[in-house]
From TrEMBL:
It is found in: Cell envelope. Gene3D superfamilies: Ribonuclease Inhibitor (3.80.10.10). Transmembrane segments: none annotated. Its main location: other. InterPro entries: DNA_repair-toleration, Leu-rich_rpt, LRR_dom_sf, LRR_N_plant-typ. PANTHER family: DNA DAMAGE-REPAIR/TOLERATION PROTEIN DRT100, DNA DAMAGE-REPAIR_TOLERATION PROTEIN DRT100. It comes from the Eukaryota. The keyword S-adenosyl-L-methionine does not apply. This is Leucine-rich repeat-containing N-terminal plant-type domain-containing protein. Residues 38-71 form the Leucine-rich repeat-containing N-terminal plant-type domain.
């Protein structure tokens, strides 16, 4: 799957519950707006007070408030989505008292601070949790592993610190895990090898943190189907086991780490389109197999590679910066090898 197809797939997944509800009520009831549930309204008023959401006006039906969506049948709040807003404060624990919430989406709120409250773990229906581009801090809570229906978890672009909780691998339906652009330390948990193996391994976005150590061998037993982005950390050692002819991963970014392994004998997944290995300590030569791939991006610059760049495929379509700053790579688009 290409990126666009992949995001379509996500969009369909995301809209599916609403689509089903919609299709099952094509009759007059469709035009009747759901009437706000009294219990939900009480909780929403607590959230309004905690975050100073001035646009939520008590006299108006709460299902019509900005950022809210109610189930057409039950009229319970199923989605809370607030973007690009200057609301300030912490995520109020009251959010955990919206028991039918499926989507919690709060992003680009520069004044949203503090930790993720444990009350979030009460949201057993939650499938989509996106809290990116805020100023949240504290740990990535291990209680998130209790949200068994989650298929999308995005905490990127915040100030989360501490290590990645191993329990996240207990989320059986996860399709994507975004923890990138935080201040996370420690290792990638060994338990991540326990994610579902074939076709259902979540895309992993862990870039721009301060993760250290080797990546767990067990990740090599999984078939990632989209992306592995571990760039800009301090990860070290071997990563060659992420590759292999029969793997299904499409995008691999390991750039700006301390990886150190021999590239010469690595076999790449046949459908992989993006491979960024720049700024590591990778040695050996570029394998011939690269010319058989439909690569859209290749960058092996700033490593310790040697020998002739294989001639063919897409390899000469990248400019010399894709290859420069290695020990002794040569041949187009770099200068010819010395005879
Ligand atoms: C709430 O927001 C309004 C409008 O943005 C602002 O005038 C007011 O000072 C805020 N109140 C608090 C307690 O932050
Ligand atoms: C609609 O709501 C009623 C009462 O809450 C419930 O019994 C029924 O299963 C719901 N139907 C659907 C399709 O969700
Ligand atoms: C976090 O807050 C700082 C100011 O304290 C602001 O400059 C920055 O843009 C905020 N981050 C995000 C992602 O909104
Ligand atoms: C990965 O998927 C491919 C294609 O579906 C399959 O041939 C291969 O055996 C799988 N490998 C693993 C390690 O699951
Ligand atoms: C690569 O893509 C082709 C065509 O879509 C597909 O038939 C094949 O199974 C894919 N290979 C792997 C290892 O996923
Ligand atoms: C490869 O990565 C280096 C280092 O980040 C960058 O300077 C260069 O522009 C990149 N080249 C290509 C073709 O991606």
């Amino acid at each position: 799957m290409k990126t666009s197809q992949y995001s379509n797939y996500r969009a369909i997944l995301l809209s599916l519950p609403y689509l089903i509800v919609f299709l099952s009520f094509p009759s007059p009831s469709q035009s009747a707006k759901p009437k706000c549930n009294a219990q939900d309204k009480k909780v929403l008023l607590q959230i309004k007070a905690a975050l100073n959401i001035t646009s939520w006006i008590p006299d108006i039906e709460c299902c019509d408030w900005y950022g809210l969506e109610c189930d057409r049948n039950t009229s319970r709040v199923i989605s809370l989505a607030i973007f690009n807003n200057d609301i300030s404060g912490q995520i109020p624990p009251a959010v955990g008292d919206l028991p039918y919430l499926q989507t919690l989406d709060m992003r680009k709120l520069p004044y949203l601070v503090g930790e993720i409250p444990p009350a979030i773990s009460k949201l057993s229906q939650l499938t989509f949790l996106r809290l990116d581009w805020n100023n949240l801090s504290g740990p990535v809570p291990s209680f998130l592993s209790q949200l068994k229906n989650l298929y999308f978890l995005d905490l990127s672009f915040n100030k989360f610190s501490g290590s990645i909780p191993p329990s996240l691998s207990e989320l059986p339906n996860l399709l994507a895990l975004h923890l990138d652009r935080n201040k996370l330390t420690g290792n990638i948990p060994e338990s991540f090898g326990n994610f579902p193996g074939n076709g259902k391994t979540p895309d992993l976005f862990l870039s721009h943190n301060m993760l250290t150590g080797p990546i767990p061998r067990s990740l090599g037993d999984l078939n990632f189907s989209g992306t592995i982005d571990l760039s800009r950390n301090r990860l070290e050692g071997d990563a060659s086991f992420l590759f292999g002819k029969s793997k299904t991963v499409l995008f691999v970014d390991l750039s700006r780490n301390l990886f150190e392994f021999d590239l010469s004998k690595v076999e790449f997944p046949e459908n992989m389109t993006n491979l960024d290995l720049n700024h590591n300590k990778i040695f050996g030569s570029l394998p011939e197999g690269l010319i058989k791939m439909q690569l859209q991006l290749l960058n092996v610059s700033y490593n310790k590679l040697c020998g002739q760049i294989p001639q063919g495929g897409n390899l000469q379509s990248f400019d010399s910066t894709a290859y420069f700053h290695n020990r002794c790579l040569c041949g187009a688009p770099l200068p010819p090898c010395k005879k």
